[in-house]
TrEMBL record:
Gene Ontology molecular function: oxidoreductase activity, acting on the aldehyde or oxo group of donors, NAD or NADP as acceptor
PROSITE patterns: ALDEHYDE_DEHYDR_CYS
All copies of domain Aldehyde dehydrogenase, residue ranges: 5-463
InterPro entries named in the record: Ald_DH/histidinol_DH, Ald_DH_C, Ald_DH_CS_CYS, Ald_DH_N, Aldehyde_DH_dom
Record's protein name: Aldehyde dehydrogenase family protein
Family according to the record: Belongs to the aldehyde dehydrogenase family.
Originating organism: Methanoplanus endosymbiosus
Keyword terms, alphabetized: Oxidoreductase
Length: 467
């Protein structure tokens, strides 16, 4: 919301501070025009068979795969993540579109038993014009999570990407159009959240809105949407706990924590944001973790060998830096590695921050209760599973959680007791397209992925036929 008010948005490469490209700053009028065009296109798109719509999504996914290098380079330039992560994300986008295309023929209602009134059945129908508001951290994957089910179900979709990362979304839209999905059926409106985003939230002509972003903005979007009759899906922030039990395979848990926290420079909704380690393995675990984290190669994501890129911008770096600055003095914690702005001369124009591990902070301090969106991992020692679960459930969040153990009993207890939309056992972070995903508590409502997301984009009509 602090972008300079011109009609162009300059997208800044966070690794270099240079421009990665520009986009139009769409106004509310631009959003209303996109809605109008979609309304004209809706009946034609909805009348196609799911198989016909799926064919166009398959073609699009194939083209995205063929152009993955070009798309990944653009994503790295605008978002900062290393090229290998950007490629994973582009491939993930193609996989999600393929998944929804592949299940297009499974859309069906119910046939109900004959009653005194005759035969009853339900049919599933598209909702109409849907909106999607997307954050900057996984802009392409999250775009696919919303686009696949919305289009297969027969809706038109208007996507508002983050103004920090609109470039790859625009290019993906051009690919979908070149593969036969009409421009008014699927469109991207670039612009600020306060202008273009709120126009989607406030509109009564948008039948469903899927929002992904912070809890704070999500709550605001919910207020804007209130009374408009739209179906709202909120995919919000998280502070995922990872519990490492005494019987865990320590090396694989350490590797899981490193991948789970420092992927995407710690800017993933379901990143490992808090570690709870049982006391009898805590020293060995912290030593191995610190050693691995201190070896993470930070740098420009375009350079081969880079394992962690910059934070999204200088403001994000300033925020992390401020948070950490008093942690030893004010909370008696110990920074085991990292803790500073990365100081090498070749990295000085980017928003780099060292991968950081912190031990000994009180379990009720902000590191454990808030969402820290950067490469900082606090580690706490717990005496047993009861304490681990109590601490894990302490926050207002309920997105993901993981438990690392060889015991079936621990796995059952954790999966049963943890307040989270998704619980992994001996893994964290990865979510295949067919697996539903979403939050509990203040982490949101509704689901993305799998058949659950397809349902979010369809309405059920009941027919009772009396002979
Ligand atoms: P954000 O809330 O700042 O912005 C998200 C989107 O909302 C952007 O497109 C922004 O332009 C738009 N927006 C801002 N103000 C708006 C308004 N008044 N009306 C309508 N739209 C508005 O979030 P961010 O910084 O881009 O992303 C990081 C957050 O997203 C983190 O909290 C992260 O955990 C969360 N996230 C959640 C998931 C999930 O699936 N649960 C996935 C990725 C990210």
């Amino acid at each position: 919301m602090n972008e300079k008010e011109t009609d162009i948005i300059d997208v800044i490469n966070p690794a270099t501070g240079e421009s990665a490209g520009t986009v139009k700053r769409c106004t509310k009028d631009d959003v209303h025009s996109a809605i109008e065009m979609a309304e004209d296109a809706f009946s034609g798109w909805a009348a196609k068979s799911p198989r016909e719509r799926a064919k166009l999504l398959f073609l699009s996914a194939q083209e995205i795969r063929e152009r993955q290098t070009e798309l990944a380079e653009l994503l790295t330039a605008e978002q900062g993540k290393p090229l290998f992560e950007a490629k994973n994300e582009i491939q993930g986008c193609a996989a999600v579109l393929e998944y929804y295309a592949s299940i297009s023929g499974t859309v069906r209602g119910d046939f109900l038993p004959k009653s005194d009134y005759g035969y009853s059945f339900t049919v599933k129908k598209p909702l109409g014009i849907c909106g999607a508001i997307i954050p900057w951290n996984m802009p392409v994957l999250i775009l696919a999570w919303k686009t696949g089910p919305a289009l297969v179900a027969g809706n038109c979709l208007i996507v508002k990407p983050s103004s920090k990362t609109p470039l790859t979304s625009q290019k993906i839209a051009a690919i979908l159009h070149s593969c036969g999905i009409p421009e008014d059926v699927f469109s991207v409106v670039t612009g600020s959240g306060s202008e273009a985003g709120s126009a989607l939230a406030e509109s009564r002509r948008i039948a469903a809105l899927s929002f992904t972003g912070s809890v704070e903005t999500g709550n605001f979007v919910e207020k804007l949407s209130c009374g408009t009759g739209k179906r709202l899906t909120l995919e919000l922030g998280g502070s995922d706990p990872m519990i490492v039990c005494s019987d865990a395979d320590i090396d694989s848990a350490v590797a899981g924590a490193v991948a789970g926290r420092y992927y995407n420079c710690g800017q993933t909704c379901t990143a490992v944001k808090r570690l709870y380690v049982m006391e009898d393995i805590a020293e060995e675990f912290k030593r191995k973790l610190t050693e691995k984290v201190s070896q993470i190669k930070t740098g420009n994501g375009m350079i081969k060998g880079t394992k962690m890129g910059p934070l999204i911008d200088m403001d994000a770096r300033e925020k992390i830096s401020m948070l950490i600055s008093g942690i030893e003095r004010d909370y008696g914690a110990e920074i085991l590695t990292g803790g500073k702005i990365t100081g090498t001369p070749e990295l000085k124009s980017g928003s780099f921050f060292e991968p950081t591990v912190i031990a000994g902070a009180p379990k009720d301090c902000f590191l454990f209760t808030e969402e820290i969106f950067g490469p900082v991992l606090p580690v706490a020692v717990v005496k047993d599973m009861d304490e681990a679960i109590e601490e894990a459930n302490r926050t207002k969040f309920g997105l993901g959680a993981s438990v690392w153990t060889k015991s079936l009993k621990n796995s059952f207890e954790a999966t049963e007791m943890l307040d989270a939309g998704i619980v992994w056992v001996n893994r964290h972070l990865k979510i295949p397209p067919e697996v539903p995903f979403g939050g509990e508590k203040e982490s949101g409502s509704g689901r993305e992925n799998g058949l659950s997301a397809l349902d979010r984009y369809m309405k059920e009509k009941t027919v009772i036929m009396t002979p």
